[in-house]
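Archive entry: two folds, one per protein. Generate the first.
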Amino acid sequence: MPDDKMTTTDAGELLGILPSSVKGLCQRGTIAAEKRGRDWWIAPEEVERYRRERRGVGRPKKETGRKATARDDRAEGR
């Protein structure tokens, strides 16, 4: 592993995404990486930066519990 960098597989495991998704992020420049041959090498700091910045992205989590159930029941007219 050159210069204490990680592969797309390692980065994907830390980020909870597929290595192919990490590769796409590298190709678009969203994650700074160095391509050596067919492999992408990513600094751990860069993976951490991306993880911090993407926090909160995506669909909000569904509420669960008694309050959420009562609210859903009222909304549906039960």
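Generate the second and append.
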Amino acid sequence: MFQIVRSTHEGEPSLRLEGDLTIYEVTEAKGTLSAALDQHPSLQLNLSGLEELDTAGVQLLAWLKQEARRRGRTLTLFAHSPAVVEVFDLLQVASLFGDAILIPPAAPSLIAPSAS
């Protein structure tokens, strides 16, 4: 189930996208996200809660970035979930958005090195 949760990040309005952003959710999401863009000259989208993203979801995010520029607003995508990173990489679209994608360091191995 797709949800948009309002919060702040670094003192700026932020929306956390949770669940799936696929062809089944984009129509509803577009209206809500467009309205949020109208309300805030600077808006941040936290993508860490996205579990699934398809090309319709990517198109919506690209449209939002373009629409923000057209309206003279700032839209920043941050905290990309593994699902978002995977799809952006597969489609080679990360540079289209212009937002930094920070990949957290791998967890340390739980296997102790053997004593030789």
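Annotation attached to the second fold: The radius of gyration is 16 Å. Helices lie at 26-39, 55-70, 82-91, 94-97.
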